[in-house]
Amino acid sequence: MNRGFAILILVFLAGCAHYHPEPISPSDTAAKLNARSLDDPAFRRFLEKNTGRQFDEWPLKSWDFDTLTLAALYYHPSLEVARAQWLLALGGDKTAAQSPNPSVSAQPGYDFSAMSGVNPWIPGVVFDVPIETMGKRGYRKAQAAHLSDSARRSIATAAWQVRSNLRGALIDYVAARKRAELLQKQRDLQRRVVQALDEQLQAGAVSTPEVTTMKIALQRAELDLTDARRQQTDARMRVADAIGVPAKALASVRLAYNLSAKHPEAAHLMSAQVRDEALKNRADILGALDDYAASQSALQLEIAKQYPDIHLAPYYQYNQGDHQFTLQVTADLPILNQNQGPIAEAEAKRKLAAAQFLALQAKVMSDIDRAVVAYRVTRENLTGLEALGAAQKKQTDSVAAQAQAGAMAQFDLLNSQLELATGELAQLDGRVKLEQAYAALEDAVQRPLATLKPALIEQPPAQAMKEKKP
């Protein structure tokens, strides 16, 4: 008997989970974050696997939006948070699938009136076997499954946000860099204009206020150039933050982004078909649907709880040589309440989930419509700026030819070149706004999906890179 009981205890302990401490050291985690870089060998393997390219030159000297997006998917901590929340929800699946354990209790008794020579002890054992009724376990499992599906879709939503933040910071950085180049060119022209005016002032050809006005313009150009360089530095740091690496990781790399892209796919993204698909199939839309389905299952569970569970309690007693068995059946009596309160709460939560879904879908619709209008208007504005720039270029070339022939003064050529530089800055702003509008359009419809495949974003990069053993 004792041996069998010991074996039963060992089998029980073998099936139990054991605690393994995993302490967090702030100094170690900070050191790991600080050591992140784009030339990491593990990241290189991840990049080659997901781009289908072999990089003969490593580390890369120039990084474009696609390669930086993969870097962000590899490093950014918000995706690890989303994955951890999914794992938490999967744990909820296991919890919901569990059946209640039976219980056992000992009831030793003693017969004070037992005759001499008769064992006065009356040992007894009571078992309690709970039986869930009305499919409660099934509703509980369904609710947990919908919540885990919602958490899984949140990973895609987080990935889109990471991609969007990266693109915005990268556009700002490249725009600030190009703006600094154009402002430096404009500043140099402004200096030459001031020098020419100083010479004319000494000759008595212009007045002091005219020169002063141009010197103020030169100072403004200097300030604009300084501000553009500050914006460039700030945007570069935001790119590092959007990737999830320290700023020093980008110190020796060139960040590239084409601000003059033609976007032939924009017409498709603005189509009614893509709009309709986005309103039904965006990751956050599907996640909200999962949340609503979970609220439905929660309501079904609370309604099922109106009906009590049953407890079977077989009882065994050894009474002075007699083996006695009884069976007790127990159930709660739904007299004082029929679970009305939890049912009302579940109904309200279902209405809330429905309202939240409708609000999200309305927001997505508004975002898409606004992005489409913004892209069209911005594209038309850029077309006008480019036409004006072409006219200014033609005018400047004409003035340059006349100045070379001696028909116009060099001062007139400088003014024309200065106007052209101002027009180039306006065109740059127009291209930046068009890129931002196109980025907003992609974010609104959540297309393309090539770089955000579930197999890429749902697994931690280190785990995804492990070779499967045969």
How would you explain this protein's 3D organization?
β7 and β8 (322-331) form a beta hairpin. The protein starts with a helix and ends in a 6-residue tail after the last helix. The chain has one domain (54-461): Outer membrane efflux proteins (OEP). By secondary structure, the chain is α+β, with helices and mostly antiparallel strands. The radius of gyration is 36 Å and the shape is elongated. The strands form 3 sheets. It has a 4-stranded antiparallel beta sheet with strand order 2-5-7-8, with no helix packed on it. Strands 1-6 form a two-stranded parallel ribbon. Strands 3-4 form a two-stranded antiparallel ribbon. It contains 14 helices and 8 strands. 27% of the residues are buried.
What is the number of beta strands? Answer: 8
CATH architecture group name? Up-down Bundle
For the record, what is the CATH homologous superfamily label?
Outer membrane efflux proteins (OEP)
Helix content: 55-70%
Task: Compile the SSE list and pairings.
Layout: H1 2-14, H2 26-34, H3 41-51, E1 62-63, H4 65-75, H5 77-97, E2 103-106, E3 109-110, E4 121-122, E5 124-131, H6 136-202, H7 208-243, E6 254-255, H8 266-269, H9 272-281, H10 283-304, E7 310-319, E8 322-331, H11 340-404, H12 410-445, H13 454-457, H14 461-464
Task: Tag the structure with descriptive keywords.
single chain; 470 residues; alpha+beta; Outer membrane efflux proteins (OEP); 4-stranded antiparallel β-sheet; two-stranded parallel sheet; elongated
